[in-house]
Write a structure and sequence with these properties.
Chain lengths: 462, 206
């Protein structure tokens, strides 16, 4: 099923619409307030974009630095070319260390690979510990937002789910639901053999991984189990701790409107003989899975992305249909670019078109990714590769030809303006247009006044 | 690496490596808030906005009394675990039972120090180590942090400098703690006490 069909379905889903209505604007508002604290926010965005560009330009060298420094502290760096490689590597690590249970904090990269299924097939119990991801694991659903994965569910749905799965008296208050989840999950943290996390950043200077969390599950996952596996994309490397400071002033503000997340955890290497806690084994899996395809090309700026979710929070399309309609791990404008690039343009035909091109995503992006330009580029590629329908391509060809012949263009538009005026029958709006129901089903088309712009222009200049 | 280099259309030469090393060793800071804060006032203000609480005492010997008062006011148990540096304080005089060991899942109050604190965001910086087990600030429902007010620095950049100066080798874990753990996953409603502490109480020592 394509985006268009799914979007229609989501618009008719009343429970989803309720959940989206509650969420609407919350992150937009909190972000707007949070960025006011930093006078001259643009300077921070420029600095962040240039840090990310610096890394991407010399990605090989920064990764080399990172690997050298991480290995020196006893971490093992693995390179995964594909999503399947990630699953194979993590299953091998689990087997090597005799892992039976893994606790996991949020990792979008692991969603790219469907890692949980692979581990379960290998006989490892996997427990998601981010509250939102845990709810989704119970409900067997994918996340619909990269920061607030369960934004599509209402509190009542969570109450029903917990009652059914935990077999405890039904809780209706949000604090009680949170406490119940905490009490169910705490024993898992203490009994798991392996912790799996993502990494928001890799620090080349120190060979460290960095994660930001609010719940504290990221700290538990990286502290309590004897094996820690961090999985992240190769593009996440950042040169220095000072660069981290700049990015940390932007990431939480752009994501949830916080000046800083509750926890920032920087992990370097394995526990030493003196340490009372921390993992004995630390594996870092660096994932390509399509990222090198973006290097050196027109889409390269997408690799700056720090996964804050601001583009989807501010997107009028996302706000109305939620994340599942986008069909893969990454929703919203960033997903409309990443999904076609990672999963193939032919598999995501509608996504570059799932935008009104209002441009808000590019305005709020903390690392200044020109998202509408990238979507426009993907649209061009679709047309050039003949992936759009023949009717659409023919229509564009005809339009292009007439646009190159001003006389014919003027004549045709004169005729069209008069016909449309006639069809409106003296009214100002057209409710139906033959062959154009895609537009008129959802809204009216303003009827032309009967004369074209060029006619009016010529007349007034006289 | 081969794929990355091919895609970037370059080969890695020695000059490139030297340039990267030079950039890293510069530790160049980006844009920063320009305000000249009174560090203690700013820290206190940020801490309160993060839903933590804060108290101030004149010397370390006054910590047990201030802590016992806080625990009684909040109906919290007078039993705690602490980092070794606080084992010398006279806890029993305040009716408290404090053990100097890393926290376990069942401990309800954990007392830690801090490497330093960041005024800009109201953040505690905690390092892992034999004398500073991370579990103590993480597993108990109440986290008490005893912070010397001279260790409050302006921003992350000053914290990094201090870290490089005092720890030539990066500790295994550097944790920033900014308030009690929280989640807003259900209906974007902020709820305190997710997987970490429900309460963070800071005692500043002059």
């Amino acid at each position: 099923m394509h985006f268009k069909a799914r979007a229609g379905e989501k618009l008719r889903d009343t429970r989803l619409q309720q959940a989206l209505a509650k969420a609407q604007g919350k992150f937009v508002h909190t972000r707007a307030e949070a960025i006011l604290e930093l006078e001259n926010f643009e300077a921070y965005r420029d600095a962040a974009a240039s840090i990310r560009d610096r890394v991407i330009r010399d990605l090989d060298l920064y990764l080399e630095q990172f690997e050298k420094n991480a290995s020196a502290r006893g971490a093992v760096v693995h390179w995964a070319e594909t999503a399947q490689d990630v699953n194979r590597i993590v299953c091998e690590i689990a087997e090597l260390h005799g892992v039976r249970k893994a606790v996991k904090s949020k990792s979008m990269v692991s969603e790219e690979c469907a890692l949980n299924e692979a581990l379960e097939a290998a006989g490892v119990e996997v427990v998601e510990t981010d509250l939102g991801e845990y709810i989704l694991q119970l409900a067997h659903e994918p996340p619909s937002h990269i920061v607030a994965p369960v934004v599509h569910k209402t509190k009542d749905e969570v109450s029903d789910l917990f009652e059914q799965k935990h077999k405890k008296p039904r809780k209706t208050g949000i604090p009680e639901l949170c406490r119940e989840a905490r009490e169910v999950l705490r024993p898992h943290f203490l009994s798991a053999d392996m912790g799996i996390s993502g990494a928001n950043f890799l620090i080349a200077e120190t060979g460290s991984t960095l994660i930001v969390t609010n719940e504290g599950n990221g700290r538990l996952v990286t502290t309590m189990p004897r094996v820690h596996v961090a999985i992240t994309g190769i593009e996440k490397v950042v040169p220095t701790l000072e660069d981290i400071a700049t990015l940390l002033r932007l990431l939480p503000r752009s994501a949830t409107g916080q000046a800083i997340t509750n926890y920032v955890s920087i992990n370097t290497g394995i526990k030493s003989r003196d340490d009372s806690d921390g993992p004995e084994h630390f594996h870092i899996v660096l994932v390509d899975a399509g990222r090198t395809k973006l290097l050196g090309g027109v889409m390269q700026s997408m690799l700056r992305c720090i996964r804050c979710g601001a583009c989807m929070n501010h997107c009028p399309v996302y706000q109305n249909i939620g994340g599942h309609a986008y069909g893969w791990v990454y929703p919203g404008p960033m997903g409309s670019v990443l999904t076609p690039v990672y999963a193939g343009l032919e598999n995501a035909l509608d996504l570059p078109n799932a935008s009104t091109f209002c441009g808000e995503c590019a305005v709020v992006c903390p690392v200044k990714i020109p998202l509408p330009d990238l979507m426009r580029n993907l649209r061009e590629q679709q047309t050039e590769q003949g992936l759009r329908s023949w009717q659409e391509r023919l229509a564009l060809k005809i339009w292009a030809w007439t646009a190159l012949h001003p006389g014919i263009y003027a004549a045709l538009s004169r005729i069209a303006a008069r016909i449309l005026k006639g069809m409106a029958g003296g009214g100002k709006l057209l409710h139906y247009l033959p062959g154009g129901h895609g537009w008129t089903d959802g809204r009216d088309l303003p009827a032309p006044e009967g004369r074209t712009f060029r006619e009016l222009y010529r007349e007034r200049r006289r | 690496m081969g794929r990355i280099r091919a895609a970037l259309g370059k080969s890695a030469g020695r000059a490139d490596r030297e340039e990267i090393d030079a950039y890293i060793s510069q530790h160049a800071a980006g844009p920063r808030p320009r305000a000249e804060w009174n560090l203690i006032a700013r820290f206190r203000d940020r801490v309160l906005s993060l839903a933590s609480s804060i108290d101030q005492v004149a010397s370390a010997s006054e910590v047990p009394q201030a802590l016992a008062r806080y625990l009684r006011e909040n109906n919290l148990p007078l039993q705690a675990v602490c980092w070794p540096e606080f084992t010398q304080l006279d806890w029993t005089a305040q009716g408290m039972n404090v053990a100097a060991r890393p926290a376990k899942g069942s401990d309800l109050v954990g007392i830690t120090g801090a490497f330093c604190a960041i005024a800009e965001t109201g953040t505690l910086v905690l390092l892992s180590g034999k004398e500073s087990p991370p579990a103590t600030s993480l597993l108990p429902e109440t986290h008490i942090a005893v912070v010397r007010s001279t260790r409050i620095v302006k921003g992350m950049e000053e914290a990094w400098s201090l870290l490089r100066k005092e720890y030539p080798v990066m500790p295994r874990a550097v944790n920033f703690v900014s308030g009690p753990s929280r989640t807003a996953d259900i209906e974007q409603t902020v709820t305190l006490g997710a997987h970490g502490p429900y309460r963070v109480h800071i005692i500043l020592v002059d």
